[in-house]
Amino acid sequence: MALFGSEDQPRRSAVVLGGGMAGLFAANVLADHFERVTVVERDDCGAGEWRPGVPQSRHVHVLLLRGVQILRRRFPGLEEELLALGAPPLNWLKETAALAAGGWLPRYDLDLLGYSVSRYLLERQMREHLQRSDNIHFRYGHRVTNLCFDGDSSRISGVICTADEQTVTLRADLTVDASGRSSRLPRWLEEFGYAAPRESAVNADVGYATRWYRIPAGWQADWKMVLLGTRYPDISGGAVVQPVEGNRWVVTLVGYAGNHPPTDEAGFEAFARGLIGPQVWDAMSAAEPLSDIRGYRRTENHWRHFESLNRWPQGLIALGDSVCAFNPVYAQGMTVSALSAEVLDAVLRGSPSAELGLVFQRKLAKMLQTPWRLATSDDFRWAGRAAGDASFLDRFMHRYVEKVVDRIHRQDTCLTFFNVAHLISPPISLFRPGLALPILWSMARAAVFGGRRARPAALIR
Ligand SMILES: Cc1cc2nc3c(=O)[nH]c(=O)nc-3n(C[C@H](O)[C@H](O)[C@H](O)COP(=O)(O)OP(=O)(O)OC[C@H]3O[C@@H](n4cnc5c(N)ncnc54)[C@H](O)[C@@H]3O)c2cc1C
């Protein structure tokens, strides 16, 4: 446990702007370093499954295995609670029908044990855990309207909120922006003379449409979850069937490059029937719908590069979607929030408080490089000319990963691929010699002698 306070700046209080996943992971870490942590959330989080601040929670939220591992460590007992509340346990690979980059992943039983839970239940239980801590407090129904700057604008000393038409000022030694994709942080900083961050964006024009269903009594299938990925350029439609608590499926249809799934019933069902795997339509057509169909289109990969600013106020950090939001198809956002909190923990243990802000943003940016590359590499192609020309490295990686997927029937290749996709291993592990040498050899032969890429056998069902 780190010490409260430090030689230069006190660590008495921290305020977290936003009680979504990134805010909750951050509060969990901050409670080890600050005497008092206050989470400020504009929504009233007690009112039912849907709250306006996180419209995405109506859609599939898959928790990658790395996220599960971090939760086990940082929120002991949470997994048992989720399972007791009906979240289905999931043996990844064995119980998932998954089509990735044109190849069906084999169903090995490798004890890759996680669970499948709605975003709502996961968030609620994490919040309940935090509320049991003496030094974490929640202020619901509080909308942050600006930051408090000290006189010379070099230091942030908290936030200004409105609640019940009253203005409330919350002072803090550290302010954490976790207010999501629509964060107003760049605007607030600009108002006080700071430069706007450079931004990177790759928009593959992905649309979601989602409906919830009751799983039919006696339902039998050789899968618990279905993940139908896309493949550039010929398969632009995908889908997920996610089992969640309450014996329900969340069915999300996904379309790239403007091929958005419709939100009217006939169009939604026609899209599902046209998918490459039969599983999604088989499930939907047997099940009772529990909700209307909702669309979602704000899916651009978007990174605000706070780390490259020269000037940054003391007493402030930002994390979660407020810094880097991903195309949700890759299911990285919640796990990256967990990883960001781990970076925060390491920085709080190692850096004097006065330097903390930019040190944190730079270490965070380093961590973000891997999920950003994983999400944007393929999206770059779908985004087409709007994203500019793919670099040599990107083009090489596309070809290389396709070759990895062609070998996915081998258990060691499959596990390596899985661990990279679940943010457990770095992408460099795809280049271990046993895997890389035959692939690089075949790529070199194709470059010298030419060669057409065969349609993978895995696609022919
Ligand atoms: C359609 C969709 C599907 C997704 N699927 C997955 C998935 O399968 N797996 C996965 O890991 N991730 C998924 N994500 C990403 C995931 O939702 C986020 O990355 C993750 O929740 C981290 O977000 P956050 O906490 O930074 O922001 P959010 O979850 O958006 O939370 C921000 C919070 O800040 C609050 N807030 C905002 N402004 C203010 C203010 N001024 N004052 C007070 N409070 C404020 C909001 O009410 C909200 O509670 C998906 C995202 C979308 C859009």
What this model shows, in words?
There is one protein chain. By secondary structure, this protein is of the alpha+beta class. It folds into 3 domains: 13-61 and 120-201 and 300-374, FAD/NAD(P)-binding domain, CATH 3.50.50.60; 89-117 and 205-296, D-Amino Acid Oxidase, Chain A, domain 2; 390-459, no CATH class. Helix content is 33%, strand content 22%. The chain has helices at 21-30, 65-74, 78-84, 119-131, 185-191, 265-273, 279-286, 333-350, 356-383, 392-406, 411-421, 433-449; strands spanning 13-17, 36-40, 89-91, 96-100, 103-104, 113-115, 136-139, 143-149, 156-163, 166-171, 174-177, 198-202, 207-214, 225-228, 237-244, 248-255, 288-289, 294-296, 301-305, 316-318, 324-325. The strands form 5 sheets. Strands 4, 5, 13, 14, 15, 16, 17 and 18 form an 8-stranded mixed sheet that branches. Strands 7-2-1-11-20 form a 5-stranded parallel sheet. Strands 8-9-10 form a 3-stranded antiparallel sheet, with no helix packed on it. β9 (156-163) and β10 (166-171) form a beta hairpin. The longest helix has 28 residues, at 356-383. The model is unreliable at 1-7 and 453-461 (pLDDT under 50). The site of flavin-adenine dinucleotide (FAD) has 35 residues, from α1, β8 and α8. Flavin-adenine dinucleotide is lined by residues 17-23, 40-43, 53-54, 56, 59-62, 143-144, 178-180, 208, 296, 320-322, 328, 331-335, 337.
